[in-house]
Amino acid sequence: MKNLILSAFAFLFIASATAMAAPAVTTTAGEHLIVRSHMAEGGLEVMIANLEQETATVTLTSLTTDRILFNDRIRKHNGYSYNINLDELHHGRYILAVRKGKTVLRQVILVNSKGAVCSEWK
User: Which domains does the chain have, with CATH numbers?
Assistant: First the structure.
């Protein structure tokens, strides 16, 4: 019985550590910028936390044509969110970038006939 309890505890500990290991939030050492995104009905929901309220930019660029499809500057907000409609994009790869000062966080978005998938933020 004791071994069963220890095994169950070890399993739960490993499972919870694995779930926490996958970061949903990205920060950088020099600047406080938090970016999180997830697929939602109607597109990709992007949430940005900019605690110093410094100017940040959000850009969506096509990797096929190098064309900027979306560009917005966020000023004097510590939290902001976007819902980007991916249904309007042609099949291909796109880069979603959030810039604040020298910090740039990027996510690759792949749109194909099966839908859209996103990489982790880097």
Answer: 24-118 (2.60.40.3080)
Return the higher-pLDDT residue of 76 and 12. 76
> Do the Cβ atoms of 26 and 105 come closer than 8 Å?
yes
Q: How far apart are CA 27 and CA 49, in angstroms?
A: 10
Per the CB < 8 A criterion, the answer to whether 104 and 34 are in contact is: no
With cut-offs at 50, 70 and 90, classify the pLDDT of residue 102.
confident
Residue 45: per-residue pLDDT: 92
Rg over alpha carbons for the chain, rounded to the nearest Å, is 18
Distances (CA, A) of 18 to 7, 21, 99: 16, 5, 29
Assign 89 to helix, strand or coil. Answer: coil
**How far is residue 122's CA from residue 52's CA, in Å, rounded to a whole number?**
21
